[in-house]
Design goal:
This protein is α/β, with parallel strands linked by helices. The chain has 2 domains: 116 residues, GMP Synthetase, Chain A, domain 3 (2-Layer Sandwich), CATH 3.30.300; 79 residues, Histidine-containing Protein, Chain: A (2-Layer Sandwich). The strands form 2 sheets. A 3-stranded mixed beta sheet has the order 1-2-3. Strands 4-5-6 form a 3-stranded mixed beta sheet. Helix 5 links the parallel strand 2 and strand 3. Helix 1 crosses helix 3. The radius of gyration is 17 Å and the shape is globular. The protein starts with 7 loop residues before the first helix and ends in a 9-residue tail after the last strand.
């Protein structure tokens, strides 16, 4: 699978925007149009979304080609080239390999390693983490003072990980407050940066 990595940025761009040029395929065009409109509404813009989608696809391909168990266990978020890795792995080498392979993807500016070494989560823990993440997404979606589209959320072992771009610190604090208000959450880790953060302009 590694041999396909150079083609992934092109594939990602086509997947997001290519449908706009298709004729006679209204559902595809509508879906692509919706995706493009959604991307344009984000602080990172359409170009940023396409680039991050390509990075995500390349990392996933590298992980899957390297070790299926690692691929399944590690969660991935990408925002403007900043890569957040979260999850639980049983083998220490998986933690090292996930980071190493993430850095190999074109366009990666930073890799944030939040992978923990622990026994695999059971179905009950997976379900609870999924419920926590869904609950937080709903809370920020319906908060008129938060641009929810700019945030990514993961929950692993009842630890909530935030990634994204906040318009200001007040918005960031509102998101964190919502997270802390959810039952079962035992810890919150935020890697959100502000809209005017200098790291957004670094190449």
């Amino acid at each position: 699978m590694k041999s396909f990595a150079p083609l992934l940025p092109i594939a990602a761009a086509a997947a997001l925007l290519g449908g706009l040029s298709l004729s006679g395929c209204a559902p595809v065009a509508i879906t692509a149009g919706t995706a493009a409109a959604s991307a344009a509404a984000e602080e990172r813009g359409v170009g940023g979304v396409v680039s991050d989608t390509a990075i995500r696809a390349e990392i996933n391909a590298r992980w899957l080609g390297h070790d299926v168990d690692m691929f399944v266990a590690v969660q991935l978020e990408v925002v403007e080239g900043r890569v957040l890795l979260a999850g639980q792995v049983e083998r220490p080498e998986h933690r090292v390999d996930a980071v190493r392979l993430a850095w190999k993807a074109d366009g990666v500016k930073e890799v944030i390693n939040e992978i923990r070494i622990a026994k695999s989560r059971g179905i009950g823990e997976y379900s609870r983490d999924a419920w926590i993440a869904a609950r937080l997404r709903a809370k920020i979606l319906f908060d008129k003072d938060i641009a929810s589209i700019n945030y990514s959320i993961d929950s692993v072992g009842r630890v909530v990980y935030l990634m994204g771009i906040a318009r200001n610190e007040a918005e960031h604090e509102r998101v964190k407050a919502h997270a802390r208000d959810i039952p079962y959450v035992k810890r919150l880790i935020s890697h959100v940066i502000l809209k005017d953060d200098k790291r957004r302009k670094s190449g």
